Amino acid sequence: MAQSSRVAMILGAGPGVGTKVAQRFSAAGYKVAVVSRSGKSVGTNIAALSLPADFSEPKSVHSVFEEVRKQLGQPSVVVYNAAAICLPPASDPLSVDLETFQQHLAINTTSTYAASQEAVRSFDAIADKTVPCTFIYTGNKLSTVVMAPLITLGVGKAASAHFIEMAAGSYAEKGYGFFYADERTADGQIVGNKPDGDAAAEFYYELANRTEPRGYHQTFVKGKGFVQF
């Protein structure tokens, strides 16, 4: 299948990583769909289908996939980039109210799970089995470390990493790639609130066009690509 026939879908297409990923795949000839709370386009320099969705409501995920299938076709690349965060005191992380905790869990994990289900349905429906089908979750080091003020984000990243690892093994025979993409600093530390959109875009494109199997946890560094920590 020519890349001009392939579809990349980015859920959580804000002005940083999401926009850069959309631009990278568009530049490579993919048809691109971007999904965000506002539903606004990621920019005038690419042609993309822009759709609104509220990822605090996981049931909304199915409807946006259906719209992408209707207008562009089955996505072979699905990137989940949405996230929610709050910053309680480090001395009292359990002060986060239950409503906020549940909302953030929906955005950081439950909607991710819903997107992975829909991704598999699309991957199964793609007739050309030579096309590498790929699900990428924008993660970070919080799947392996605890930082008290980032409780809701950390719980979400850790939970999502768990089922992404499971999916990577379960669907390996079909050739489907499930990846937890984890940008690090050169010394292996968390990049914090300043992930590099261009580095992520290039790395995600590389994962989507892999020529051999790769592990589910993909750590990468700006300017270097994959680095094992």
Count of discrete alpha- or pi-helical segments spanning 4 or more residues? 5
Catalogue the unreliable spans: none
Quote the average pLDDT.
94
Strand order of the largest sheet: 3-2-1-4-5-6-7-8
How big a fraction of the residues is strand? 15-25%
Termini separation: 35 Å
Rg result: 17 Å
Most strands sheet:
8 strands, mixed
What best-fitting shape do the alpha-carbon axes yield? Answer: globular
Structural class call reads alpha/beta
Which descriptors apply to this entry?
about 230 residues; about 20% strand; 5 helices; 8-stranded mixed sheet; alpha/beta; globular
Q: How would you portray this structure in words?
A:
By secondary structure, the protein is an alpha/beta fold. The chain is built from five helices and eight strands. The chain has helices at 17-27, 60-71, 98-125, 151-170, 197-208; strands spanning 7-11, 31-36, 48-52, 77-80, 134-139, 177-184, 217-221, 225-226. An eight-stranded mixed beta sheet has the order 3-2-1-4-5-6-7-8, sandwiched between helices. It starts with 6 loop residues before the first strand and ends with a strand.
